[in-house]
């Protein structure tokens, strides 16, 4: 756990409501400022500042994030119509919280290119 990291606090159950999904590796919860009818964040319980900061030791954890995101999309009922997974990294990527997170967005048709 990294001191003053809001997502570490959420993963530890010290902030926010009950998670949508949690196991020993990852936690999912609803975004406080949703950009789509369904907008969840999926994080590793371990503090990794960004995908750029992940190491080879995190390979299985990163794979688990992808597979769990797909599982949550099914649970949220957005699997049939499709959804978008987004990982913002760094300033140009638009990252604002420096604990790696996957955005799971669905419930409306997404546009491309992203803003
Ligand atoms: P980023 O811009 O880093 O890719 O995404 C950070 C996301 O975290 C934003 O969509 C923002 O709304 C969300 N967020 C920031 N603080 C909180 C919080 O305290 N609780 C929840 N549930 N979401 C948060
Ligand atoms: Zn953290």
Brief rundown of the structure:
With 115 residues, this protein is α+β, with helices and mostly antiparallel strands.
Identify the bound ligands. Answer: guanosine-5'-monophosphate, zinc ion
List segments where confidence is low: pLDDT < 50 over at least 5 consecutive residues: none
CATH topology call: HIT family, subunit A
Main beta-sheet annotation: 5 strands, antiparallel
SSE arrangement, N to C: HEEEHEHE
Set out the fold topology.
Blueprint: H1 6-11, E1 21-22, E2 26-30, E3 38-44, H2 59-75, E4 83-86, H3 90-93, E5 102-106
Antiparallel strand pairs: 1-2, 2-3, 3-5, 4-5
Bound molecules: guanosine-5'-monophosphate and zinc ion.
Q: Please, could you describe this protein's structure?
A:
- By secondary structure, the protein is an alpha+beta fold.
- It has one domain (6-106): HIT-like (HIT family, subunit A, 2-Layer Sandwich), CATH 3.30.428.
- It contains three helices and five strands.
- The chain has helices spanning 6-11, 59-75, 90-93; strands at 21-22, 26-30, 38-44, 83-86, 102-106.
- It has a five-stranded antiparallel sheet with strand order 1-2-3-5-4.
- β2 (26-30) and β3 (38-44) form a beta hairpin.
- It is globular.
- The chain starts with 5 loop residues before the first helix and ends in a 9-residue tail after the last strand.
- The protein binds guanosine-5'-monophosphate (5GP) and zinc ion.
